[in-house]
Amino acid sequence: YSFRSQSTISTPESYKYNGITYPKDSYSNVPSSILDKLDRNLHLMPSHPISILRQIVENHFNDYKALIPSSAIVSVKQNFDELGFPLNHPGRSLTDSYYLNKEYMLRTHTSSHEIESYKKGLNKWLLSADVFRRDEIDSSHYPVFHQMEGTHIWLNSELNQLNELNKNLENQLKNIPIIIEDETKISNSNPFQSHHNPIYTEQIIKHLKNSLNSLIFKLFGHHTKSDGEPLRVRWIEAYFPFTTPSYEVEVFWQGEWLELLGCGVVMQKTLDQSGVSDKSGWAFGLGLERLSMVLFSIPDIRLFWTSDSRFLSQFKQGEITTFQPYSKFPPCYKDMSFWLPQTDENRHESTSSSAGGKTLNPMTSQKQFHENDYCEIVRDVVGDLIESVTLIDEFTHPKTNRKSKCYRLNYRHMDRNLSNEEVNELQNKVQARVVEEMGIEMR
Ligand code: FA5
Ligand code: MG
């Protein structure tokens, strides 16, 4: 792991948003194409699938306060520091996150709003927003997606009510065709918090599980009835710096376990920082795209961003309906083979302190190849016409030790045919940019 900078991708001269200017520095890596996404607010367009799902979850948890944060720009403090992310956590890297500058970034998760929400004195709330992560390119990854955070906390003096609350929830869950496979256990690797009364922590965990299981049944219930097979839901152990114990929930869907959300018992330190040391409870963070793709049968994550009415007109507020694909236009792929930059990185690496995680120098080992940097340039040139970028070959020259990679760029327009000339032109542009900005050499 190293804290590496991406290449000089086309970023605006300076970052201005809502009348605030964010001076650029060596961390700045938000391309204009991503900034343009800040005002799209898919989660607020009434009959967009992301928003439909948000509203269904909000209706399910109808006594929770629904919050919408005002801006995707948060401080690094909010997104990472206050939540206990160690300085060398990979999520902080410039290859994984978007920074306006050293201090401000695009939130990578809705947990970045936990503390400000607890500070409002709210005990039960849901918060939905767009989140931003640099990532690979395929049908389920897009640099912007949506999450919903949810929490329920109680005054410690009220935790004795939990037993009763759980009984009620368990009664509601009684006769539903859902198989819950609980693979979690109490263990040292996923510990309770030392100052918590374990009897109450167990009740909090039960309440978390009951609440989320009932949501999952609400969302998937109608699917299970149609094919007669009971839905399988799995709880597994997880790790997050801001919860312990921590869990992930998966559903068995079309032959695979699909991760829906992360959750856990809120770290007391988070509540202390929010001025509510006398409370404890649970939190979860749910991926809205991932759930929508399953529930509405949406095959490609780019479809959420289309303005084509053949997509948008299919959905109605309050209803989960199956997407009817309109004619898919043919793909067109082009391969690109290149030699990675010849670096003296081994020498550099051993003298640099970045590996220790203390000095975060983004310029260190700038020439190292990272796939996210490559994908970012592809997205910057090609926009949503790129469907996937796949590594299809990799090899090291036996004599020179030079490394080579071959990527297949799969182009497809959602709404029309692409001509071969058009794709060639795009491919050439990508090629010119990656050669110039990543120091790689075409083969
Ligand atoms: C988080 O982001 C934590 N903040 C969740 C959390 C909240 C834990 C509160 C504890 C308490 P994670 O990176 O696993 O965790 O993302 C949470 C969910 O977002 C995933 O389960 C998945 O549904 C969705 N998600 C994550 N990455 C992507 C992606 N690249 N594309 C689409 N959905 C994603
Ligand atoms: Mg996860």
TrEMBL record:
<dbReference type="InterPro" id="IPR005121">
    <property type="entry name" value="Fdx_antiC-bd"/>
</dbReference>
<keyword id="KW-0067">ATP-binding</keyword>
<dbReference type="InterPro" id="IPR006195">
    <property type="entry name" value="aa-tRNA-synth_II"/>
</dbReference>
<protein>
    <recommendedName>
        <fullName>Phenylalanine--tRNA ligase, mitochondrial</fullName>
        <ecNumber>6.1.1.20</ecNumber>
    </recommendedName>
</protein>
<keyword id="KW-0496">Mitochondrion</keyword>
<keyword id="KW-0030">Aminoacyl-tRNA synthetase</keyword>
<dbReference type="InterPro" id="IPR004530">
    <property type="entry name" value="Phe-tRNA-synth_IIc_mito"/>
</dbReference>
<dbReference type="InterPro" id="IPR002319">
    <property type="entry name" value="Phenylalanyl-tRNA_Synthase"/>
</dbReference>
<dbReference type="InterPro" id="IPR045864">
    <property type="entry name" value="aa-tRNA-synth_II/BPL/LPL"/>
</dbReference>
<feature type="domain" description="Aminoacyl-transfer RNA synthetases class-II family profile">
    <location>
        <begin position="129"/>
        <end position="325"/>
    </location>
</feature>
<dbReference type="GO" id="GO:0005759">
    <property type="term" value="C:mitochondrial matrix"/>
</dbReference>
<dbReference type="Pfam" id="PF01409">
    <property type="entry name" value="tRNA-synt_2d"/>
</dbReference>
<dbReference type="GO" id="GO:0005524">
    <property type="term" value="F:ATP binding"/>
</dbReference>
<comment type="similarity">
    <text>Belongs to the class-II aminoacyl-tRNA synthetase family.</text>
</comment>
<dbReference type="GO" id="GO:0000049">
    <property type="term" value="F:tRNA binding"/>
</dbReference>
<keyword id="KW-0547">Nucleotide-binding</keyword>
<keyword id="KW-0648">Protein biosynthesis</keyword>
<dbReference type="GO" id="GO:0004826">
    <property type="term" value="F:phenylalanine-tRNA ligase activity"/>
</dbReference>
<keyword id="KW-0436">Ligase</keyword>
<dbReference type="InterPro" id="IPR036690">
    <property type="entry name" value="Fdx_antiC-bd_sf"/>
</dbReference>
<keyword id="KW-0809">Transit peptide</keyword>
<comment type="function">
    <text>Is responsible for the charging of tRNA(Phe) with phenylalanine in mitochondrial translation.</text>
</comment>
<dbReference type="GO" id="GO:0006432">
    <property type="term" value="P:phenylalanyl-tRNA aminoacylation"/>
</dbReference>
<feature type="domain" description="FDX-ACB">
    <location>
        <begin position="327"/>
        <end position="443"/>
    </location>
</feature>
<dbReference type="Pfam" id="PF03147">
    <property type="entry name" value="FDX-ACB"/>
</dbReference>
